[in-house]
Amino acid sequence: MAEVAEDPEDISESPAAPGSHGLHETSSGPQSKKRNAFAELMAPKPKAPKPDAYSGRSSAGARSPSHKNSRGKTTKLKWSGALVEYIDHPDRFPQQVIRVTDKTVLIRDAFPKATVHLLLLPRSPAHHDLHPHQAFEDRDFLAMMRDEAASAARLAAAELKRKLSTFSASSKARNEAMDKGVPFDQLPEGRDYLSDIRIGVHAHPSMDHLHVHIISCDMHSDKVKHRKHYNSFNTPFFIPLEDCPLAEDDERRKTSFQNANLSKGFVCWRCGQEFGNKFAELKRHLETEFEQWKKE
Amino acid sequence: MAEVAEDPEDISESPAAPGSHGLHETSSGPQSKKRNAFAELMAPKPKAPKPDAYSGRSSAGARSPSHKNSRGKTTKLKWSGALVEYIDHPDRFPQQVIRVTDKTVLIRDAFPKATVHLLLLPRSPAHHDLHPHQAFEDRDFLAMMRDEAASAARLAAAELKRKLSTFSASSKARNEAMDKGVPFDQLPEGRDYLSDIRIGVHAHPSMDHLHVHIISCDMHSDKVKHRKHYNSFNTPFFIPLEDCPLAEDDERRKTSFQNANLSKGFVCWRCGQEFGNKFAELKRHLETEFEQWKKE
DNA sequence: TATTCCGATAGTGAC
DNA sequence: GTCACTATCGGAATGAG
User: Fold this and answer.
1) Domain B74-294: which CATH class?
2) How far is A284 from A186, CA to CA, in rounded Å?
3) Of A109, B7, B117, B234, which cross-links A117 as Cys (Cβ 3.0–4.6 Å)?
4) Where is the composition biased (Low complexity) (chains A, B) (predicted)?
5) What does DSSP assign to residue A216?
6) What pLDDT, in 10s, does the model give residues B108-160?
7) CATH for A62-264?
């Protein structure tokens, strides 16, 4: 089991104060002002007054991903292609982008399915349009992504700690011991947040561009609204990065296997309880599990 | 086409003031005070605070049809058997019961599917448990029911007139001519409300006891909430009393025909427009048709 | 082809 | 296996001092 001994970089979610963390490689400058150009595109739509049919335009709805081309015409973007915007223009999304390197961009998932949910995006055009099964056959690329993902997971664990430690019994024990001056090597372990972070890809990603999920295991999110939201992370449809590249004959390559998993009955990630097709019951159960899990 | 030349008995809906119309054969007396015993049973449940699981009892919910037997034990009644209460104890339901004779009880449908919606219930135990197809093979019984239904339809037409005449162009024309002293035989016709009243039974009734619907054609009611609510009155599933008794080989006797009609796409009763399975669109359309129809 | 509540499912639109 | 909205479809309960 890996441990989180150090206290890694903070990735607080507060609105990006200019230069607050200084992790961006690309410059921002005046673009900071129009940072919402795409960020808001994918954000949940604010509750708007019910649109009377044929009434005027809505006031504050989210926009679908579009941009003006060189002649000023508006062009539709495929929704499944949206991630490339983060790859090509990470500076435009200071609130979403956590870290940028030559090779990767690390962002927050716009619709997080758990308490912490990040996406690691490779920037290499030679790889980022490939299906993960194919891209990860490049062992150098895979090694790079594993390193970056491991780093991202430490960030995620730190974020998780920031969000949960006030509830955590084991964190509290360690902190109290520390306050009492207990020598470092005699401190209780404290909570291993990294062990609750999972790294992997979907067997059949819905977004065109290669992305690795770095996600806490709790599935506690109001963005978990459908069967596939849950099952894509809690069945073999979720492929740990460690399993990559998949063997040629791995059943997870088969569409039938993927569909079968996505349509399975629900099983609690923590206690294994089955909920059949009763999504609402699962959701209520996840609430209670979350309350317990927080306190570990 | 039948006409409504006279102004038949009023059947106003206001809470039954004792003796206000004097149509009841059976006495009321002290029972008027406990008249809600069954009336409220079938009434829509008032909005109650969302019941938190395992929270206390709800405050004012409707009750299901039950009664105490001789030993004071509560007995569940089948929901489909509820109409017999009106037949056996019409005096208990002064608000619902419009007219009582030796042979029939005329009531308001507890969940009216149109502006006017009455039910004619035969009291004869020899008939009221039979399927309509069988009961109406007794020609004397059928003749009696037709007479009673025709009378009920005149009441319904009068009720419809009471509700609509303030909107009706043809009623207005007739009234204005009358005010001007136009001779009776030269008055414009006025609106024929009776022609908008339909009399019939369902091909397969859901309630156990024989009942004939006397219903205005508009289907304008917030109690029309489901496909079958609409289609049971607007497909051959609805059998005009004139068609009774059905021939031995009439297709409307076949369950498959009945089911096929109940699951048909929606067709506007007035303009014939089709709405497929889009119930909500049908409902919106019915609103606009009602506005037009009122003004005829 | 009782009503009602709740919830699962299905189709659509997004510039 | 985008999200969010609307609407359709499906089961279960329906009592009670």
Assistant:
1) alpha beta
2) 39
3) A109
4) 51-64
5) E
6) 999 999 999 999 999 999 999 999 999 999 999 999 999 999 999 999 999 99
7) 3.30.428.10
